[in-house]
Amino acid sequence: MIPASDREITIRFIQEAVQAGARERRACQELGLTQRTLQRWRSDRSPLEDQRPHALKRAPSHKLSEPEVQQIVEVINQSEFKSLPPSQIVPRLADQGIYLGSESTFYRVMHKHEQQHHRGRSLKPTSKPLTSHCATEANQVWMWDITWLQGPVKGMFFYLYLILDLYSRKIVGWEIWEEESSEHASHLMRRTVLSEQCVVRKSPLILHSDNGSPMKGATMLETLYSLGITPSRSRPRVSNDNPYAESIFRTCKYRPDYPLKGFGSRDEAREWTLRFVRWYNTEHRHSGLNFLTPNQRHLGLSEEIFKNRNKVYEAAKAKHPSRWSGKTRSWKLNEQVWLNPEKNVVMDTEEKQSN
User: Fold this and answer.
1) What is the 3-state secondary structure of 186-249?
2) How far separated are the first and last CA of the chain, in Å rounded?
3) What is the mean pLDDT of the chain?
4) What is the Cα–Cα distance from 216 to 310, expressed in whole angstroms?
5) Using one digit for the tens of pLDDT, what is the confidence trace for 166-212?
6) Inter-axis angle of helices 243-253 and 266-282, to 10 degrees?
7) I need a surface site. Which of 73, 191, 236, 269 has the fewest CB within 10 A?
8) Does the pTM exceed 0.90?
9) What topology does CATH give the domain 135-294?
């Protein structure tokens, strides 16, 4: 459906090409037209605009009449059918010797009369709000998850339980077992709370996780309540709601010394994981922490370390000022760390940092 303005421009271009010595047929080919189409556009009997959108379409001879449509609407709202889809209604009517239309016909009628959603006792689906938390110091918000570690044979796995602190990214607790269970998670949680000495707190500790069965088991929940820990859940089927836990598992499994052929035993897996945790907490300069180690951030050493780094950069600039086009590198870190922040929170934080 080419508008009249485009047709006129096309005719003018082809006319200019012909006047310049080109053949009309070749000029039409360059524009993707046939010579017959060009002749039709030039004809006085051919309308300038495409008339197909304005054509009157005759109703199909087999179209449902209005009484037939109303009969389908009445049937789908009967007590025995109001909670059923057409795929269930049509066969039941056929068993009663009644045929009103196919399943697709029922769907078209339901769509036209806005009957295709939330019929009967079905409730309108609601979207769960995004779980968002903010940490301003260590041991305020923890995140945990479980990942598989390949065992000695195909199909055999060991399960790494790992707890991460949101503020410092420190691995505060971990253990490896041969199965997933809320009992193992409960044992790890008690041990981690004791090792971090956070039994007495000003505000409840938040523990964020996904919706796996070990996370929601009765034993685990009872342990959290007894320790004064507030459980937090990701949205169903949304893995991005626990991003830091997923990220550290990738870091773990992409280490150069990670055994690609699997661990020979649980003790071997524990030994390797112990080395990884020591490296991650004490040696790994985390890019999300402006290249502090998680332990340095967890112990509150960031201000002193950044102050020393700034002195080094200022001294380097004073020694060779021509090598610096502007200010020295900003060694600082935001004291508010968000888990799944809202969009307006992200914009406000970026605006404050830029100012």
Assistant:
1) HHHHHHHHHHHCCCCCCCCEEEEECCCHHHHCHHHHHHHHHHCEEEEECCCCCHHHCHHHHHHH
2) 53
3) 88
4) 46
5) 999 999 999 999 999 999 999 999 999 999 988 666 677 999 998 88
6) 110
7) 236
8) no
9) Nucleotidyltransferase; domain 5 (3.30.420)
